[in-house]
Automatic annotation (TrEMBL), chain A:
The chain crosses the membrane at residues 99-121, 133-161, 193-211, 252-271, 302-322. Keywords: Cell membrane, Membrane, Transmembrane, Transmembrane helix, Transport. SUPFAM superfamilies: MetI-like (SSF161098). Residues 97-319 form the ABC transmembrane type-1 domain. InterPro entries: BPD_transp_1_N, MetI-like, MetI-like_sf. It is a multi-pass membrane protein. This is Peptide/nickel transport system permease protein. Belongs to the binding-protein-dependent transport system permease family. GO terms for biological process: transmembrane transport.
From TrEMBL, chain B:
This is Nickel import system ATP-binding protein NikD. Residues 347-366 are annotated as: Disordered. It catalyses: Ni(2+)(out) + ATP + H2O = Ni(2+)(in) + ADP + phosphate + H(+). It is found in: Cell membrane. Keywords: ATP-binding, Cell membrane, Ion transport, Membrane, Nucleotide-binding, Translocase, Transport.
């Protein structure tokens, strides 16, 4: 099967996944106590204003009608109006997306570029002191809640040492006039950098620890394979064995972990964004839930689910690229 | 120089230091391989054959260590220790012993190549078959990438891979087991080493393919003028291709002979037992006497002769006295068995261990 056909088929299959996500979220949001209109207008509102607004958002209709209408809109790319913000949900998502993407990208870049070499080194120096240190670090890393790391960083680096800002993000491409303490492009980049450090560590430490652990165990397993012994027996140097003969094979499980973590970290950024008051999608979801803003909650959830589906698909494609034994969908 | 053996292994000792104790996997093994010769190393599973051949390439991984003995190859000292241990009690390397880097650049692959046992696990699944072969030839023969590629295709043809140029870029999973074993042989031959060590390369294959592979090796040995050390537990293979044979039991060589002497005039009861356990055209199946019991663990080998608890000819003296490998016949056949006069062990007057003694490991002769 060719790659484009494989991708098309997988995307076709994911329509059902997404339909499931929409349905379940739709039911959950509607089952939750609280009324978006009352929350929006406030407790002192009169009955006619409430009725008018309910009609405006179609909330006066029975749930199955609303469900079908919603689906038809989604198919046309319309995620509806946010009740709270009074703008289209898509617009709100697009507005918040860059901050979240920047945070996730920065965290994973940090996690991957540190974890992969450390994992390899740890495997190479198995049971030596450095390996033990890395492993203990990894264990602490995977078992520490990220918001706790965030709070700890803020207490130390902001309150005690006053080194780094604890709130918000600065987009590196923002115009200098829109950024505090910035007059030149370089200032913007600097501000962007110092704002990113703590959120990156907060979201990235867990990822780093997870990748490091899988990298180490995966490398160890590959280094024990017979084909590595063969390379050694034919005079291939340890360096080449590590870099060429073992590395590529060992990345298969690592890739899976990165792919899955990447997609769940998008959701996981909710905590980090809250701790650092970052206006990303994570905080958007929180606002949506608090305001019982049905369209907003549904829209962001659907958006995340799509990212997840695409993430898994890309992981699978990369996997097939790295491992010639896997071909696209030959099982059919 | 040419009158010294190509490979000389003397009193080699390789041990694994495990939590359960010291595993004496290879315990004082000596043998030689002359130029142009095919020498067999036979013995049951666990006898220490693989550990012995991997020691020759110094490919023993922790917790294993070569703790004693000498290995010389083509004038180079692969393993050599001072007689006196160092102050820490560890054996001290002699000056002329090759360093790890020298082993890698001067011996492994280029001078001694190993044919691996498992054709399914020994090729890297994520690289092409041709690419892997080319890399080893390039490295060990110092050829350019293109020249190594041409050579790789040529050698794939020689080992019987049809359409080698087309199959060059295939991955291992696209090859059958027999084909992969041919590739492993091509790897060894392509590096043009002086010695090829084959560690049971046909065990994983079915009998027809095994036959083809043996024929192939026989043909190519002439052409490449390589010497072989052939590890197997199959006496049939020994008869087919070997010139001389070393029989191993529990970390020791217990008999050494030319193939003819070994088959027609075995001097060690263990060799006899091995020969009796293979079907032969001149014997009916009732004559088959499979060796009873299992080989003990090398972690705590039996006292005296290590074979005494399974030996049909064991006597009391065998429990006490450990026989070394000695010349036992006029023709210069070697065996490590006290029943031979060369040992002057009072074997004749010693009480037999079979039947009446529980230490004999049960009654095996009716
Ligand atoms: N890494 C290791 N750690 C501990 N013991 C080992 C190790 N490798 C080998 N041994 C022991 O050394 C002994 C000899 O093993 P070896 O693999 O050389 O046997 P073999 O004669 O090649 O057998 P086979 O025919 O099954 O390949 C065995 O008892 C084995 O348990
Ligand atoms: S020394 Fe004794 S036990 Fe050992 S092989 Fe000879 S007869 Fe058997
Ligand atoms: Mg073996």
């Amino acid at each position: 099967m060719s790659l484009p056909r494989y991708v098309a088929r997988r995307l076709g299959q994911s329509v059902f996944t997404l339909l499931g996500v929409v349905t379940i979220t739709f039911l959950l949001v509607n089952a939750a106590p609280g009324d978006p209109v009352r929350i929006f207008i406030g407790p002192s509102a009169d009955a006619s204003a409430i009725a008018a607004m309910r009609a405006q958002f179609g909330l006066d209709q029975p749930i199955h009608i609303r469900y079908i209408k919603y689906l038809m809109n989604v198919v046309q790319g319309d995620l509806g109006q946010s009740i709270n913000y009074r703008v289209p949900v898509t617009q709100k998502i697009l507005e918040r997306l860059p901050a979240t993407l920047l945070l996730v990208a920065s965290s994973f870049t940090f996690a991957i570029i540190t974890a992969v070499p450390i994992g390899v080194l740890s495997a190479q120096r198995r049971n030596q002191l450095s390996d033990h240190v890395f492993r203990i670090f990894g264990l602490i890393g995977v078992s520490t809640p990220s918001f706790w790391i965030g709070l700890l960083l803020i207490i130390i680096l902001t309150y005690h040492l006053g080194l780094l800002p604890a709130t918000g993000l600065v987009m590196p491409w923002a115009p200098p006039s829109a950024v505090d303490h910035a007059t030149t492009r370089l200032d913007v980049l600097y501000q962007s950098g110092i704002h990113l450090i703590m959120p990156t560590l907060t979201l990235g430490t867990l990822q780093m620890a997870a990748i490091m652990r899988i990298e180490r165990s995966s490398m160890l397993e590959v280094l024990n394979q017979e084909y590595v012994s063969l390379a050694r027996a034919f005079g291939v140097s340890e360096r080449t064995i590590l870099r060429k003969h073992a590395f590529r094979n060992a990345q298969l499980p690592v890739l899976t972990v990165i792919g899955l973590n990447l997609t769940t970290a998008l959701g996981g950024s909710v905590l980090t964004e809250t701790v650092f008051s970052i206006n990303g999608i994570g905080t958007l979801i929180i606002t949506g839930v608090n305001a019982r803003d049905y369209p907003l909650v549904l829209g962001t959830t659907l958006f995340y689910a799509s990212l997840f589906v695409i993430g898994v698909l890309i992981t699978d494609i990369l996997y097939a690229y790295l491992d010639p034994r896997i071909s696209y969908g030959d099982e059919s | 120089m040419s009158d010294t053996p190509l490979l000389k292994v003397e009193n080699l000792k390789t041990q694994f230091f495990t939590e359960a104790g010291t595993v004496r996997a290879v315990d004082g093994v000596s043998f030689t391989v002359e130029r142009g010769e095919i020498v067999g190393l036979v013995g049951e599973s666990g006898a220490g054959k693989s550990v012995a051949v991997r020691s020759i390439l110094r490919l023993i991984d922790s917790p294993g260590h070569i703790v004693g003995g000498e290995i010389t190859f083509d004038g180079k000292t692969v393993v050599g220790f001072e007689d006196e241990p160092g102050t820490d009690g560890e054996p001290t390397r002699r000056e002329e012993m090759l360093t790890n880097t020298e082993m890698r650049s001067q011996i492994r692959g280029s001078e001694i190549a190993l044919i691996f046992q498992d054709p399914m696990e020994s090729l890297n699944p994520v690289f092409t078959v041709g690419g892997q072969l080319r890399e080893l030839i390039e490295l060990n023969r110092g050829l350019s990438k293109q020249a190594a590629r041409d050579r790789a295709i040529e050698i794939l043809r020689e080992v019987g891979i049809p359409q080698p140029a087309e199959r060059f870029d295939d991955y291992p999973h696209q090859f059958s087991g027999g084909m992969r074993q041919r590739v492993l042989i091509a790897m060894a031959l392509g590096c043009e080493p002086k010695l090829i060590v084959a560690d049971e390369p046909t065990t994983a294959l079915d009998v027809t393919v095994e036959g083809q592979i043996l024929d192939l090796v026989y043909d190519l040995q002439d052409k490449y003028d390589a010497s072989f050390l052939w590890v197997t537990h199959d006496m049939g293979i020994v008869a087919e291709i070997c010139d001389r044979v070393n029989v191993m039991y529990l970390g020791e060589v217990v008999e050494r002979a030319s193939v003819d002497d070994l088959f027609y005039n075995p001097q060690h009861p263990y060799t006899e037992a091995l020969l009796n356990s293979i079907p032969r055209p001149d014997q009916s199946t009732e004559d088959l006497q499979p060796l009873e019991g299992a080989m003990p663990e090398p972690i705590n080998p039996p006292s005296g002769c290590r074979f005494h608890d399974r030996c049909p000819e064991a006597r009391e003296v065998c429990q006490r006295t450990h026989p070394d490998l000695r010349t036992v016949t006029e023709a210069g056949q070697y065996a490590a068995c006290l029943k031979h006069d060369a040992f002057e062990a009072a074997y004749e007057t010693s009480r037999p261990l079979t039947d009446e003694s529980p230490a004999a490991g049960g009654d095996r002769r009716e």
